[in-house]
Amino acid sequence: MYLAQKEFMDPNFLIHKLDTKYFPWEFISSLNCVVGKEFSSFDIDVSNGYIWIINLWLALVIATHSCAWLGTAVLVTNMRNFPLSRGTVAGILKGYIGLSAAVYTEIYNSVLQESASKLLLFLTLGLPVLCFALMYFIRACTPASGEDSSEHGHFLFTQAASVCLGIYLLATTVVDDLFNPSDALSNTFTGIMVIFLLCPLAIPLKMTLFPTNSKKNLPPVGSSDSLVQGEGNSNQTEPLLTPSSSATCLGSFHEGEYASDIDMLLAVGEGAIKKKRKPKRGEDFKFREAFIKADFWLLWLVYFLGVGSGVTVLNNLAQIGVAFGVTDTTILLSLFSFCNFLGRLFGGVDKTLPRTIWMTFSQVVMVVTFLLYASALSGTLYASTALLGICYGVQFSIMVPCASELFGLKHFGVIYNFMLLGNPIGALLFSGLLAGYVYDFEAAKQQSSTCLGGTCFRLTFLVLAGACGLGTILSIILTIRIKPVYQMLYAGGSFRLPSSSSQS
């Protein structure tokens, strides 16, 4: 499905060519969703022939293409609206995406009575209706010019609500698997889940019904309020225009690069030549400009090795559980999903250090986890799965803000979706080719279609450990290269927006 999502032109190449302020991108994604899910509903009644294969392929291409429209529109818009909290924003959005499978499973089991046709009807009509109802609220706003304590509190409330939702979904999954509750109790579980999902709506309701006057207490940019403190000293003179802290920081950051260009700048000023300066790290890059940068490919490779190895375990987790002697893998899958959510939610919160250093730590833990899997020690399966889920989620919440901080927000949609190609390519190489071949080979030695024992995935885990080891080395190199960017952006613990990025 993920490959089908990338099968045709990425929507961001079209989004950045047209007017994103007035064009209804959510409307387009809704149409894709309707058409794609409608195609999928045809497959239920087809029992023979090859027509269903073509139909299913078209459904995957169109329906999953809507995921790219929805995800990109929501993520890019919120990253631009909250540039000072982009790591937190990415973590919250990616975290809810990680919980979405458990939410749909709960709806499928209780409300839809495990009916495939009802599920497709719900996806065909329910999601577009939600998009049409909420598309007005997904739009670009003018971001705040400084840190806002109330905004930080709102993000904390949303994170707390999402954690409660994740814990609740994990608990209900365990209860459903162990006790098989009645339909009435299952519907009650679903109703409580919906309440948790709607909890973040308390923030806009509170801001609408009880507006605060915090903005009135903040002096506007460029005001003369700072002169009040020097009112007693009338003889003291101050310059009318003072350089901003951001400009000072940027100047010191690029001082070494600009010093060698004095003669070139003088020639440009005299009109002898015309030169267009290429963007520096932290400024807005076009996709073709970022594509040829070493930092771009280092980040892509680190992300590819991290999520590629993680998604391999996710795709084969049921077979891994059976190979280790776990007959019912529902709890194992739920544990991975919940820990994946935690990694996504909190992985991008810290911004004082280069974010890639957390990718380094997470991939070191992944190396240890894969070695534990390969050793097949008793009692380590659930602990290894939990650690791997957290580290796998961290890769998502780190890549998103890191790419925006290195290459800017103006063309972030295209850069972000290209980075996401590391997930399906990693799944194809590590899961489809490596893990599938090794599993079939070991199962053939046992003369069975189901492989049992630690040898089923041992070679796969050793290769994945080596891949994460390589990813660790590359992430260290990337961290050293981009450390000055974070010193410039977050000097003194506060965010300083580069001049070019602020214009996007």
UniProtKB/TrEMBL annotation:
Membrane topology: Multi-pass membrane protein
Domain NFD4 C-terminal: 293-485
Entry GO terms, CC: membrane
Keywords, sorted A to Z: Membrane, Transmembrane, Transmembrane helix
Main location class: membrane
Transmembrane segments: 50-76, 88-107, 119-141, 153-172, 184-205, 296-314, 320-343, 355-375, 381-402, 414-439, 459-480
Pfam families listed in its UniProt record: NFD4_C, Nodulin-like
Residues covered by region (Disordered): 221-243
InterPro entries per record: MFS_trans_sf (IPR036259), NFD4_C (IPR056555), Nodulin-like (IPR010658)
Location within or outside the cell: Membrane
Composition bias, Polar residues: 223-243
Name the record gives this protein: Uncharacterized protein
